[in-house]
User: Fold this.
Amino acid sequence: MKGRSIAVLAILLVALASTTSFEARQTGIVTEGGCGCHGGMTSNTVITVDGLPDVFNASEEYLFTLTITNDDVPVENPDQNGGFSMILTGGGVLESVPDIDGNTASEMDGGLTHNLDINDRRTWDFKWTAPADDTAIASFLIFGNAVNGNGAADASGEDQWNKLELDVPGINANPSAPSAEALTILMTVIGLALGLILIGSMWVFYTRNPDNFSIGNFWAYLKPWLTTTDHKQVGILYFLYGFFFFLVGGLLALLFRIQLMFPENDFLTQAEYNSFFTLHGTTMIFLAAMPMIAGFMNYILPLQIGAKDLAFPRINALGFWIIVAAAPLIFTGIWSGEAADITWVMYPPYSSLTGHAGGPNPGTIAFIAGIALLGASSTLSGVNFVTTTFTMRAKGVGWMKMPLFTWSVLISVFMLYVSLPAFIIGIFFLLFDSTIGTTFFTAGGDPLLFQHLFWFFGHPEVYVVVVPAFGIVSEVLATSARRSIFGYRSMVYAMVGIGVVGFIVWGHHMLTSGMSPAWRAAFMITTMAVAIPTGVKIFNWLATLWGGSLVFKTHTLWSLGFLITFTLGGLSGMFFPVAGLDTQFHDGYFVVAHFHYVFIGGIIFALFSGIYYWFPKVTGRKMNETLGLWHFIIGFSSYNAAFWPMHAVGIMGMPRRTHTYAVDSGFAELNMAISTFAIIFGISQLLLVWNIVRSVKKGEKVGKDPWGGWSLEWAVTSPPPTPSFAVEPTQYDANDPSDHHETKLESLLKAPFRTMSSLWNKEAKS
Assistant:
């Protein structure tokens, strides 16, 4: 009996020791884990705090509101709606703001809680006086309880509570370094990404030859692509990488366009919208456009100048694998729930003083580190293109005989080399602020300095990808018109002029930052001056078409689409150098419309043209012209239907980077149209994907020159051998005639141009 008593006593003592501690409150019991005598913790109860700053100033007073919402908990007793417990650590004074009847919350150790006088609501007001020490970090632990007031406590299971933790750092608080948990998440994401790529590659290899499939055979197939230094294979890897992220970035855009399709929509939370918005811009510029352009550079440039390969093949391959490592860093936060929400411009102090414990969350830090890796990749790649162009041109390929695409690559790389150091310095300083507590752009530093460093790179960056697009369009239009480009030298000088003037225009992004009138006037003039060399190029392209015999292939149509949309985008860009108009349009949807007309209508349309144009050279097969025509018709029309109305929405006052908008704002109808056509444009890209996949196996086989091109890439077989040239090639004359096997559709499309060409020739003879 004695033994049994001792055993029972021991069990009771263990149970008591392991029981969660609790403390009685006015209408419930708050345990260490929450409201213990009410229903369980659930995400259905949402706790929001409005009025607390992201960072506090010493001794400053802040009024804020605590709100608890839960539509699943109806109120049965109007006198008992909800309750809270708020605990403050880290300093400062927390006070309850009296309601209309003078009632306030009750004090408890370290904070405040509800009482019987104020539990008839789910909203309460407070005043917080920040600590005198602005290096401190104030932490709020809030338990919010949505109750029905039936007095049944937890018996009904209908009362539901939740918890919220907030950290508010002082303006001079040191940000924290990333945690080990974030590192674990990062490594997991990298491992999963590599695993998916490996499994996908094995599946492709298996479907091609299922009878002979083995791990040994698969490795023999995969290894050359993983270890290649051949400029053609590296170029294909660059392009496939960029094209994949072009689809990813487009999908992100469609998600937040669905969010904006209806006013006051809740398809995405504000945090999700901000994260997707950030990743969309970053993905499209750094992970899609630049790698696809780099793919064309790698594959085409050595062929155009008669080189066997790039000057530094191993460095070229290293540049590609660095961007492969950068992508998981940029996307890490999506999987951890702490995605970067700092937009692609990454403005401090928000990018360095957000998230947990006064510093950026691990996803933001990984994002910034990924951007730094992209800068390293661009530097390594650029070395190759410059050195190859200067030292490895075939005899007869003089400076003024190089194809315009080669010229565009050279100018683009020089622009990158001049602008990139400022950006990389800014990125590393931002990374230091985020990890080791420096103050380059935080308190004691100058956040506006980062904006200048970014836009000194950011605006030339647009030209870094646009100028190669100019080169692609020049090659396509000259070949399609079956004549040399009109005004070759002026085209070269115009691209050089864009490269020079592009560095003295960044200030128009800063016109609203308090810039002096003298500098505002200077940047207004220089920004307008960019239109001069751009206008020269457009005139020369039109003159090339006018004096030629145009061949209507899919690549020709996309280049013609480029001329239309890029011109419209350039015209809308002329509003921004005017300081008064820029003040009105700044950070509005008019800017979004302009940028996408330049970026998609300029860069992406040119890339589409280059894909259709050089696909036969890479694969030895043509893409399907019917599918290509449908891709152009649907894509071009839906693109303009989606982005042209954004000008109107911007003039009406809709701000960019907005999560939602009011029903009575007047934006609803236009946003519905924008989102609808944006979805159609996104779906139309599946035609391109299918055309590529289909044509690789079933496309019409072609010889080395299916279009009648004149530059040296058309002098080798399709696909080219390795090395590309066994003997030194001879460059063709651009004006040599070639047979294009005109189709009925082309004959119909060419009819008005034949008439104009005939009139041109008669006038020239007279």
Remarks:
- The chain is about 55% helix and 10% strand.
- The CA atoms of residues 569 and 598 lie 5 Å apart.
- The first strand starts at residue 22 and ends at 25.
